């Protein structure tokens, strides 16, 4: 049994994680929230108190922290006596937070691959570039490190594992589909930090097909999916973290990721990209001022956190998995549907943050309770899926399965 | 007879004006080019020498000048002994250059209304805001000041006057149509300084209809025109300088200006505008840097001057004029067609600069020769149109007239 959680990061996802940890503080113990922004931490603590989400008289504290500073992170982990660290800070701090966990023995959880701020869309193997280089050290020191434990990557990896365990003898295709059918009511906005959000789409699109990496351009390959609840939606082949770990764990399957985009998003994105306004390379104005265009675009766009109160509609994220069982071809769809408004009412964040944050808190619960305290580095598909899927259900994310006969049922209860 | 010309401004239009003045230097005498940028002035002088465009052994000189500085401009006019000043500098210097002309007695020519850099799309009466306040002083001092002597405003005003003099008893509608059917081969670019170009389209659209100012939004009213040479083209109701002076000189006519835009231009413009990237109000980046978004957009767009070498296709600008003659309703179209490539081959500028610059040089010739040396302030429709139209023809811009029977003929020869 491990206890006391340190949440690194106080954006929308950090808020969800903190609320969900508080709601499980009878199991998790003390909850500490740390971020560069004291103000954002404080707002989350206030929100938890306001909603009376603490379930024990354990501590709820916040701390200002530069998570790029390993020693400061080590000191905070020790001071908080945290045995579990949930890293939902910027994509640039994974390696420093993991280093602090290795030094202190605390378990580590994150929800996205590490990125170098100076690079855009690095080439696969992504986990191989940074995280997996530490796998041996984790195993040697007996440190649990769960990588990519959000929704995608995360829950979608568990769905693939579930399919392998129970529904197929052989898996041919794993098509992960992520549709946000919600509406924020603004002309245009990104659901995450625009700098991170756009970086996902400005490079080469990678997919794993026929046993090798395939490359395409963004918005080159589009496909309409007919989905439960949200209906027919257009999605585009996109590079995404989980393709890499799934390609290692399902080397004979085709692994593709499809992100839903409306025509309006694509138009705005293409204009900005083609004009050079998504560039992270500085330009000089006629007046001689050096400016990074992407940072100006970020400055004029709505703050993603500001979207939550007015966000309506639903998300649908899941895995289309096809293959053979007992010699017969079949396809299933394992998925979740989340509601933006319900998420906001519960924890003050929109559905995208909610679906990313709940799984990380559930992963912490599974480590605290022992199910996932594997004392090594692991991606989610390498772990037992049922405790995760059940835990998600208890914490607000239900799982449905539409089988080869078109029958759709709740499987997570 | 007046002589010796000072050209203020060394952008694309300044280049055309300087070349055309040089080609008429047997009449105009010395040619002086002044701008904030010594480099641009020097390039124009070199281009004139290279093309052997000087037609006399008069002087061809350039000067660095801040035309906002009235005394410096007065000093330069005197030093150059310039009796004619052609102001094709930024829209912000009209008042200071006019002041210098009033002090020295030099004739003044410009091609666009004065603008205050701190305001965007001021409300009508535009000329009344600045230029016409000096009309009395011009008359008192006997200073010739020809306002708006480019193509539009300028030539299109002369076309309206021609129609009134020779083709109608009563004019009902003056619809000025400006179509650039050329292609610069870039994803997106503006033909003038993006700061000025976008400012034209970010405010309210004014037109003069039924004896009063009407307001619309940009891109609210679109209409397809079937034009000679360039064919069917969509144009949008737009505010433009000449609507104001024509509304005073043709108060009973409806005066509208239509600017051609392709769907792609409108898409890009709308994205930039709706995101707030065309704003001249500074925003602050996450890093605390204060930046004016419009200046960043300008920095990433191609320099308009760089478009000229690869510009192909044609422009068509003219006036649809309808009314009655001898009790019968009729409509005519008076117009010019210019070619981007031909303009570049002749003077190293694209067609948009060419059509704006040639008329200003012709106006200078008409002042030098006495036809337009009216010793007061005047808009082009208040002056005799034939010497202007003939002079344009001799200097590269032909005028055609398509009459009520659909017959199309060259009238400027």
Please give a structural write-up.
Chain A has 413 residues and is of the alpha/beta class. Chain A folds into 2 domains: 5-151 and 348-394, NAD(P)-binding Rossmann-like Domain (Rossmann fold), CATH 3.40.50; 155-346 and 399-410, Dihydrodipicolinate Reductase, domain 2. In chain A, 35% of the residues lie in helices and 25% in strands. In chain A, the strands form 4 sheets. In chain A, strands 10-11-12-7-15-16-18-19 form an 8-stranded mixed beta sheet. Chain A has a 7-stranded parallel beta sheet with strand order 3-2-1-4-5-6-17, sandwiched between helices. A two-stranded antiparallel ribbon of chain A has the order 8-9. In chain A, helix 4 packs across helix 5 and helix 8 (155-166) crosses helix 15. Chain A binds chain B through residues 187-188, 267-268, 271-272, 274-277, 279, 283-287, 289, 291-293, 295-301, and chain B through 187-188, 267-268, 271-272, 274-277, 279, 283-287, 289, 291-293, 295-301. Chains A, B: Pfam families: Sacchrp_dh_C (PF16653), Sacchrp_dh_NADP (PF03435). Chains A, B: Residues 5-146 form the Saccharopine dehydrogenase NADP binding domain. Chains A, B: It comes from Neorhizobium turbinariae. Chains A, B: This is Saccharopine dehydrogenase family protein. Chains A, B: Residues 150-396 form the Saccharopine dehydrogenase-like C-terminal domain.
């Amino acid at each position: 049994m491990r206890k006391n959680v340190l949440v690194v990061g106080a954006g929308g996802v950090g808020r969800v994680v903190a609320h969900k940890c508080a709601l499980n503080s009878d199991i998790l113990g003390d909850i500490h929230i740390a971020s560069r922004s004291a103000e954002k931490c404080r707002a989350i603590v206030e929100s938890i108190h306001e909603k009376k989400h603490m379930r024990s008289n354990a501590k709820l504290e916040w701390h200002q922290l530069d998570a790029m500073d390993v020693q400061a992170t080590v000191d905070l982990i020790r001071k908080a006596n945290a045995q579990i660290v949930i890293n939902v800070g910027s994509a640039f701090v994974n390696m420093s937070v993991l280093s602090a966990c290795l030094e202190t023995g605390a378990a580590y959880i994150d929800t996205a691959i590490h990125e170098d701020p100076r690079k855009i869309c690095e080439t696969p193997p992504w986990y191989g570039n940074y995280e997996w280089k530490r796998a041996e050290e984790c195993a040697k020191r007996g440190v649990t490190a769960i990588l990519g434990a959000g929704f995608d990557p995360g829950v979608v990896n568990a769905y693939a594992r579930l399919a392998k365990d129970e529904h197929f003898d052989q898996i041919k295709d794993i098509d992960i589909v992520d549709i946000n059918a919600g509406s924020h009511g603004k002309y245009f906005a990104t659901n995450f930090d625009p700098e991170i959000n756009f970086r996902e789409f400005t490079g080469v699109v990678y997919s794993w097909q026929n046993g090798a990496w395939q490359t395409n351009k963004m918005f080159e390959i589009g496909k309409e999916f007919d989905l439960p609840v949200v209906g027919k939606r257009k999605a585009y082949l996109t590079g995404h973290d989980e393709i890499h770990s799934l390609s290692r764990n399902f080397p004979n399957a085709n692994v593709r990721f499809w992100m839903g985009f409306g025509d309006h998003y694509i138009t705005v994105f293409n204009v900005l990209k083609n004009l050079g306004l998504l560039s992270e390379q500085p330009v000089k104005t006629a007046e001689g001022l050096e400016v990074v265009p992407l940072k100006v675009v970020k400055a004029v766009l709505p703050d993603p956190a500001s979207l939550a109160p007015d966000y309506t509609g639903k998300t649908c994220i899941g895995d289309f998995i096809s293959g053979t069982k007992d010699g017969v071809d079949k396809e299933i769809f394992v998925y979740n549907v989340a509601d933006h408004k319900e998420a906001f009412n519960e924890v003050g964040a929109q559905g995208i943050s909610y679906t990313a944050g709940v799984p990380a808190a559930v992963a912490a619960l599974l480590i605290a309770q022992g199910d996932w305290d594997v004392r090594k580095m692991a991606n989610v598909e390498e772990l037992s899926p049922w405790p995760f899927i059940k835990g998600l259900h208890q914490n607000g994310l239900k799982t449905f399965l539409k089988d080869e006969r078109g029958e759709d049922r709740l499987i997570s209860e």
